[in-house]
Predict the structure.
Amino acid sequence: MSESYAQRYGLNPLGSGIGLRRDFYETLPLTERTVDWLEIIPENFLSLGGRSQRALDACTERWKVLPHGVGLNIGGPDPLDEDYVTRLEALVRRVDAPFFSDHLCYSRLGGVYLHDLLPLPFNEEAVEYVVPRVREVVARVGRPFLLENPSYYARMPGGTLAEATFLRHVAEQADCGLLLDVNNVYVNSQNHGYDPRAFVDALPLERVVQIHLAGHDRYPEVIIDTHGGPVCNDVWSLYRYVLERTGPVSTLIEWDQDIPSLEAVLDQADQARALLSEVKR
Ligand SMILES: [Fe+2]
């Protein structure tokens, strides 16, 4: 494999981390268990004060903290939100994040934030639309940037490319990294009927700088990406498949609904760390 995106920017694997969620603002900074790094949703920390500021300050003293947004709206028809990007840049600088990320989707329409991350049509027009927006965000924030593959429940009309080809064209033409959500790959593969391993093989894996793992809810007709439970065995096994091809990658457990005890989330992070320790660089 030629020089990876992570190598080009000196982004060494951080290990296994969890998200700094409100439930853990007081307990996480004091934990004696191993936590390698943390992820924050920047929208929760753009206006600081009170509990959130105290928690963030305590955590940045102990760990690397990486912002992972939902509000950039990189693929939506609205212009980039100047105020949001300005405040994101300030947050990235404040926590001295080595990189930051958001989703390859749209999340805002007519100035209104949608409470969902909607997929883009998988076609060249969408690639051409997104690429200069990614380049503008990277220029404004001044750090390496990763796009995440979202989960989706219907394909946008007008698609002409395979999903993996779409991701590849955006990442290569924008020259950004990928945040590979392995649970999203699994959920999409089940809902849309494709082989998740073939999908992984078709990705530009040399651009994967971070991995997400999460739980989902299975219904008779559909699997919903809820982040509301432990990682299932199929996703662990797909994670191992990815790591065998990428080597160790910074990995994060996402648990955002029905949040259990901190110990239960850290148990999942331990499991990811154990797998990371088994793969060769
Ligand atoms: Fe994710």
Summary: The chain has one domain: 5-278. The chain has a mean pLDDT of 94. The pocket of fe (ii) ion is lined by residues 148, 181, 212, 254 (CB under 6 Å).
